[in-house]
Design goal:
With 102 residues, this protein is α+β, with helices and mostly antiparallel strands. Helix content is 39%, strand content 17%. It has a three-stranded antiparallel beta sheet, covered by helices on one side.
C-alpha cells in the first residue's frame, strides 16, 4: 500500500494559514470561539473533489477554519489525519507553545 504524503505539497500554505489562525485565536476573547476554536482541535473538515479544496477547521466549531488549495484528486481521511495531527502538534510546539497542543 502506497501512503500519500499529504503535508509536504501544501506545507507552505498550511503554515501560513496556521499562523493566521493561531494569531486570531490568541487575539480572540469571545466565546465560543475562544473555547472551541482552539488550534489544538484543528482537523480535517471537508474536501471538495471538484475544486480540490481542503477545509481545515476545529472539530466542534465548524465554519471557523480555513481552506487550502490542493492538487489531490482525493484524500484518504485516516492517512491525512495521522499526518496532519503530527504536523499540527509540531507546529504548535515550535511556534505557539502557549497554546496547548495535545
Amino acid at each position: 500500500m502506497n501512503i500519500i504524503d499529504y503535508i509536504t505539497p501544501i506545507r507552505k500554505e498550511l503554515e501560513e494559514k496556521m499562523h493566521t489562525f493561531c494569531k486570531s485565536f490568541l487575539n480572540s476573547k469571545t466565546k465560543p470561539f475562544f473555547s472551541y476554536g482552539t488550534p489544538r482541535y484543528l482537523n480535517y473538515g471537508a474536501f471538495d473533489y471538484e475544486t480540490k479544496v481542503l477545509t481545515i477547521e476545529p472539530t466542534s466549531h465548524t465554519g471557523t477554519g480555513f481552506n487550502i488549495q490542493t492538487e489531490f484528486d482525493s484524500i484518504e481521511f485516516d492517512n491525512f489525519w495521522s499526518q496532519f495531527r503530527t504536523f499540527r502538534t509540531e507546529f504548535l510546539k515550535k511556534n505557539y507553545p502557549n497554546i496547548k497542543y495535545y
